[in-house]
Amino acid sequence: MAMNSIIELPGNSWTEAVASEVQDRAIESLEEGKVLYFPHLAFELLPGEDAFLQPKWSTGDAKNISFERETGQIWGVSGSDAEKTALSRMLRRYADSTREFLQNLLPTYASTLLQARTSFRPIEISGRASSYRKDDTRLHVDSFPSRPTGGKRILRVFCNINPEGKPRCWRIGEGFREYAQRFAGRVPQPIPGFRFVLSLVGATKGYRSLYDHYMLGLHDQGKLDMDYQRQSPQEAFAFPPGSTWMCFTDQALHAVDSGQHLLEQTFHLPRASLRHPERSPLTVLEDIVGRPLCASIR
Ligand code: AKG
Question: pTM score, two decimals?
Answer without folding.
Answer: 0.96
